[in-house]
Amino acid sequence: MSDDHPPSGQATKKSWASRLLQTFAAEPSCREDIVDMIQDAENRDVIDTGTKEMLEGVLDVAELKVRDIMVPRSQMITIDKSQSPQEFLPIVIDTQHSRYPVVSENKDHIEGILLAKDLIPYGFGMSEEPFSIECVMRPAVIIPESKRVDVLLKEFQSKRYHMAIVVDEYGGVSGLVTIEDVLEEIVGEIEDETDDEDSRANIRRVSASRYSVKALTPIDDFNDFFNSSFPDEEHDTVGGIVAQAFGHLPEIGESVEIGQYQFKVTAADRRRIQQLQVSKVSKLQHAAE
Q1: What is the pLDDT of residues 131-143, one digit of tens each?
Q2: Which of 3, 104, 257, 262 could disulfide-pair with 81, CB 3.0 to 4.6 Å?
Q3: Quick one: 67-187 is in which CATH superfamily?
Q4: pTM
């Protein structure tokens, strides 16, 4: 084979690059010009739709602030520093996040970040030391709402942390943001190998008889999944029905039976229920009672 001819893959790469450079030959004067050029590149088959959306996502990130993409305070799943492993492990199992803010008193008092993987040595007897959340949790990174998202992404990369606690101008916690939140602004929703139809529908099976259900699950979706018949005249979500059954805003760990189902609160804040563990109550249980 002659050395004068590059491999076909290299030639294709050069061809793609030259076509892209040709598309952007005219110097853009504003963001709208760049967007138009990206659209033109797709129209001319220089890039595909996925690449176009990713490039547009990069442009969007450059204009976003952390407050635009953060998980709001009310939806933060936290672990209280005073909780024992027996109390917070159901939260970890049901929500399946990799990181949890550790709080004391309330969500304005962030003590650190607990990584779920750091619990493994204690669960398998690999650690000779007794469990102490103070020894396991990592320092929390605090950032302002006004921080630019592209700047935050660079910090995530350079400082190698994946979660930051967001505070407002008065120092109160307003939410949290993860590196996944930033990347999803660029590439779209990221689903891992544990995501399935049930989790996307707010309902996920965690054992043969238990389910993890988001409190914001519409009642119609719950009824369709469980073949139940909860009314939706007064409430739109499962959390609304459960809150009414309690008669007060329940704390984590409280449970209530409604019809054939037991609802246990696994995540909540001072304003609403966030996550529930649902199991069907057997006829034998009722007979025994």
Answers
A1: 889 889 999 999 9
A2: 104
A3: CBS-domain (3.10.580.10)
A4: 0.58
